[in-house]
Amino acid sequence: MCRRRGREEACLDPPRPPRGQRPAHTSPHRPARPPGTPEHLDLLIDQVDLREDLAAITVPTSVISTTLDQLFTPYHHRQLADTIPGAEYAELSTGHLPFVERPEEWCAILLDFLGNASA
Fold first, then answer.
1. Nearest residue to 77 (alpha-carbon basis) of 68, 109, 108
2. Which of the ends of the chain has fewer CB neighbours closer than 10 A, N or C?
3. What is the pLDDT of residue 45?
4. Residue 36 confidence (pLDDT)
5. Count of beta carbons in the 10 Å neighbourhood of residue 47
6. Cβ(84)–Cβ(110) under 8 Å?
7. DSSP characters for 76-116?
8. Which whole-number Å values give the CA distances from 28 to 25, 31, 32, 78, 95, in the listed order?
9. What secondary structure does DSSP assign to 35-76, as a single string?
10. 13 — pLDDT class (breaks 50, 70, 90)
11. 94 exposed, middle or buried (CB, 10 Å; 0-12, 13-18, 19+)?
């Protein structure tokens, strides 16, 4: 998605189909999304853009990417990590709820991050 910021145009996301023409992403390997999800995502994507604020974050930050997430992909997580100064990046092979799907690995990543942040 490209957005104009003053005289500059920032393109951080790949092009997306227009609202209402986005695929449902259903297949035998991907369960159907709950009703209302596309509209909710349209609202978040089209009206909420905080990317300009990310570079101002000054606290230790951990971005944990969930590689099987159907809502936010590692591409989006990597954008966060690359934009927040000093952010750490980790990946878990889970869907949208890593703390439910793989709680031990989730906790290990967080404990390691917190141990490093307090050192």
1. 68
2. C
3. 66
4. 72
5. 7
6. no
7. HHHHHHHHSTT-EEEEES--S-HHHHSHHHHHHHHHHHHHH
8. 10, 7, 9, 27, 16
9. TTHHHHHHHHHHH---HHHHTT--S--EEEEETT-SSS-HHH
10. very low
11. buried
